Amino acid sequence: MSTNGNSTTGSSAKGKKVPRRLRPQNNPRLATVFLAVAAVGLYLGFTKDVPFTGGYQVKAVFTSANSIRPSSPVRIAGVNVGKVLDVERYGKTSSALVTMEIDDNGLPIHKDAQLKIRPRIFLEGNFFVDLQPGTPAAPEVSDGGVIPVTQTSTPVQLDQVLTSLQYASRQDLQNLLVGLGTGLNSKPTAAENAQQDPEVRNTTGGEALNKSLKWTPQAFKGTAIVNQGFLGEKPGDLSKLIAGLATSMTELGHNEATLASFVTNFSKTMSGLGSNPTALRQSAALLGPTISNTYNALGSLDKALPSVSAFSLDLIPSVRETPATVAVGTPWAEQTAALLAPANLGAVMKLLGPITADTATTVGQQIAFLPQATDMAQCFYYKFLPTGDTTITDEGATYDFSTGQAAYKDFWFALVGLAGESQNYDGNGQFIRAQAGGAQQTQNSSTDGNLKVAMNEYSDSGNPQLQTPLFGNMPNKPLGTSPKYFGRANAPDYKPANKCVTSPTNQPLNLNDANASKGLPDQNGSPG
């Protein structure tokens, strides 16, 4: 209210305070506060993030983004644990770099984590990132770290399936499945059986695969060793190999004609290998020993390299002396050049004529000698030496003459026995020892030519009764002869023109045949 033109707003005429509800309101200030609160609420409602605070971020490289966009969810086992913040091109490649923010309930993320882009519905659309955080044994990915493309994958799009499975491709796929079923369920023919290993004959492909499972642990072990070798000797070798292969593939892609020719030739090579499975199987069987021998050869080469290096170092002083050697040899070369000059060449040729003739004669004789030397070497290698390694055994159960040693050792044993047989008792000379009389064994011959050894028979007067000539008395009964003596009339013919070895095969002579059997003692003494 107003009185006499004086304002009484906010107080009465007597100076009393007006209640707050009756005072005029400041509308602009209230509107500002309301808009600020509404803005904060809307921001939190749509972004679901507290301003000026950043969560744990991780990046991953995908071959294709597959309609992944910012705010797409990131899930672990179907539970949302984060969202996609940004999708951008990865360097100068056609791959995509996806930046994700992971909540605390999705941590930690390990370096062996796997990420896949998957659709939330079957018929495309609404993609999300399926995250497998990795194993606890692996190190954790730092904030902002990048997971490589080798640990990510993208889904196959329906249009890619329909584009790939054209009529010809579908027909080939059908033929492949039919052929696979036939190969796994059909029995092999007789001709096919002849080319198979005995273990898998008369079995279907499926049965043969089941039998091959027993070799799987050993094969996996070998594969693991090979894969370990592919990692290289030090960190970074495998990445360098992949980088080199990428460069090679890039260059091949720039020249399509060369690449097409390579594929064609490679196909022909594989067809040629597949056309002869028996030879391929034999080659594969020989590949293992070849690799083993190559490895041993390389190991020997590696062991020889220090010696070669030492030899090279020792050769350095000789190389340093080369200029001096050349300087000394230069006058000799000058004299030789003067000697061989056209003016003196005729006299030199006259001097060399007799030498050349003798050399030609020597060469001719060597040509005739070398085949004989070859025959002799083959005889020693394929006959004489292997025969010396065999053991001579007597026929019968007594084995009186067997030593159980190789024949060449028996030869040296015989020489030692002969040397000891003629020694005197102090070893300083030789003499013949003889034993006279007193023995009960007599050696005599019978009328039928067979050797007979019998005890002396004494008459009533005490004198021995001998019906055949006496050759000697022996303290022990003779054991016989080995090998059997057939007499000079039955000796084999000596044929010096026959070769000892007709073909280079390692077949020793049989020292235990009928000609080497044990015989009776010789009743005729030494042959005359």
UniProtKB/TrEMBL annotation:
DNA-binding keyword on record: no
Listed Polar residues bias regions: 458-470, 500-515
Transmembrane segments: 30-46
Compositionally skewed regions (Basic residues) per UniProt: 14-23
Membrane as UniProt keyword: yes
Record's compositionally biased regions (Low complexity): 1-13
Region of interest called Disordered, as start-end residue ranges on this chain: 1-23, 454-528
Pfam families according to UniProt: MlaD
Domain Mce/MlaD: 55-134
Key words, A-Z: Membrane, Transmembrane, Transmembrane helix
Name this protein carries in UniProt: Unannotated protein
Lineage: unclassified sequences, metagenomes, ecological metagenomes
